[in-house]
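Notes, p. 3: input format for complexes.
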Amino acid sequence: MSKQIWLTGITTSGTPHLGNYVGAIRPAVEASRDRGRDGFYFLADYHALIKNHDPERLRSSRREIAASWLALGLDAEHVTFYRQSDIPQIPELTWMLTCLTAKGLMNRAHAYKGLVQANLEGGEERDPDQGITMGLFSYPILMAADILMFNATHVPVGRDQIQHLEMTRDVGQRFNHVYGPHFTLPEAVVAEDVAVLSGLDGRKMSKSYDNTVPLFESSKRLRKSIMRIVTNSQEPGEPKDPQGNTVFELHQAFATAEQSAQLRADYADGIGWGDAKQRLFECVEAVLAEPRERYEALMANPADIDAVLADGAARARAISAPFMERLREATGIGRAAP
Ligand code: TRP
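Output follows (338 residues plus tryptophan):
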């Protein structure tokens, strides 16, 4: 069997938070150390461009995310770590795939349908496509190009992205049917056991709820954020239930099994919320203190980040450029092979 190729895209929007770390970054960084497979990790800045029209914000977000992944131990020697926008063959392939993609297939994309639905509910007068760009509409095709370009076999994604993987397979299959078997059809890998963290207010930690704890804020601010977690009004001395408790759950995502068992016992003994939060802070701080130093060093020397990404892009293009030549020939855009 040929080697597995794992590929993951990271949309460069926002500032990474604890939920991103536990749900996506930590498992992906661990996977990047697996010598049994090849890995492609890229910053999906063309995807970010769909929603972000502020050039400075786009750049700073990309830099923060790259620095975060590197600081947290992404093995950029072993895996290929690059910016999507450094690979000109990706938009080229996007167009080829666009020409084979049924518009009806894109009409069925959940993200697009959700926005149309919101417009329809927003009032009679509204255009159902109000505020929807072609970039957003074609999002799944760009994603298909990301994946098919490197013939990924496995694509770790969140549940919300499963449909995009199905679309990738559809479009890849269509290309193979028309032009010959050029693409591997990838499978989605959805992690079942990854914790979904709660945020400060107890709802899922998410940028859209504005309840996140940024990953690399200063130790002082981290403590402050943690102290803001909403708890109930139980007093110190009252036994507390760890089940469904945000402080306990966050602690569990960072603690060793022993630390977690200790906190559980202390809940039963009636630890006060302030002390429980202090315990949580110490535990998160222990995990993030060293990466934070590396993060700050990288952010102070963006040229170091750029050098890693330039190296990754060169390695990625060494694959995508010759492959694109083949695809150009296959489609008739290129000269026929002699
Ligand atoms: N759409 C993905 C997300 O929002 C990011 C992404 C872009 C991606 N291209 C990809 C993920 C290719 C996996 C493979 O999470």
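The CA atoms of residues 162 and 239 lie 42 Å apart.
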